[in-house]
Amino acid sequence: MDKLGTASNNKAIHKNINSGLRGFFLALAGICLNVVFSYFMNKLGLPLFFDSIGTITVAVVSGLLFTGILTAVVSSVICSFFYPASIYFAFFNALIAIFVVWFVKNYSFKKIEKTLLFAFVLVFVSSFCNSLVQFYIFGDSQLSLVAQNARSFSSAVNLSYLPSFCLVNFLISLLDKGFSLVFALIISNFIPKGFIDSLRKGAWKQRPLDDSELKSIKSWSRDIKTSIRVRNTLTLVITSTVLVLVMGWIGVNLYFDSIKSVRTETAKNCVRFAAEAINPAKVDDFIKYGKLLPEYENTARVLKNIQSVSSGIKYLYVVRIEADGCRFIFDNSEDEFDAYKPGQLVPFDEDFEQYIPDLLAGNEIEPVENHTIFGWMLTVYYPVFDSVGRCVCYVGADISLDYMAEYMGKFMLRVMMIMAGFFLLIIAYAILTTGVYTSYPISTIAACVDSFAHAGEDQEKLDENVKTIRSLDIHTGDEVEKLYKSICRMTLNQAEQMRDIMRLSDSTLKMQDGLIITMADMVESRDSDTGAHVQKTSAYVKIIVEGLKKKGYYAQKITPKFMSDVVRSAPLHDVGKINIPDGVLNKPGKLTDEEFAIMKTHTTAGKHILENAISTVQGESYLKEARNMAAYHHERWDGKGYPEGLHGEVIPLSARIMAVADVFDALASPRVYKPAFPLEKALAILQEGAGTQFDPKCVEVFMDALPEVKMILKKYSSGV
Question: If you average pLDDT over residues 542-561, what whole number do you get?
Answer without folding.
Answer: 91
